[in-house]
Amino acid sequence: MTPVLEIEDVRVRYPARGLARWRRGGGAEIVSGVSLRVARGQTLGLVGESGSGKTSLARAVLGLVWISGGVVRIDGRSAAGPRDRGWHFMRRDVGMMFQDPVASLDPRMSILASVAEPLAVHGGPGALWRRERWEVAARMLERVGLERRLFDRYPHQISGGQARRVAVARALVLRPKLVIADEPTAGLDVSVQGEVLNLLLDMQAAFSLSYLIITHNLAVARHMSDRIAVMHRGRIVEEGGAEDVCVRPGHLYTRGLVGQEERVLF
Are the beta carbons of 140 and 128 closer than 8 angstroms? Predict the structure, then answer.
């Protein structure tokens, strides 16, 4: 069966600034030959400290940055780069939850309008009319546990936990096959973290989703994932079943992460 996501030998190089940009091969390679797969209905936790290249890899999957080598396939399809029209259609199959859900929303748009927006942007042929889009968005907001009285509020008028639920609704409104969640519990109280993670698990079961969870928190990855990949300085240094990686880490860097693991109550 074709994996929902295939990353093969992907490299991402950010261009240098100033005079160095004119040198051959100038710039820093942030992602160095990464290969990963996410199977249908499963979750891959991508773990590493800040600066390890996790978010840059996610941006490459979304087609937001050029890859300098390798290929990204979503449901068996690939595209050459951010300007390739193929990315527009591939993005329908990928939902994104950004690390700061409030900052990722337009402050001038209500919660309901923000969740309905992907239906207009990526609706494709036969896109829903405005009223239908808002009805679909409202049902999804209710599905993630938000009351209708909140729908007309703006991002700055809701709590951090509510903003996460909005982010889940916006990521799922197109019924994608893959959801990328970048630090889904960042900045939340422990009790709210558990609510958000359990919501993601409920949505995975309801919609047969695959997840790529990006986090520095090994406990979060262990709770959510079928498999864990550990990223360090742009490379995957260890990959395996979630319990195996957490209980029997093989790489020295992974052992350090296990030693630093904070106790999280779910």
Answer: no
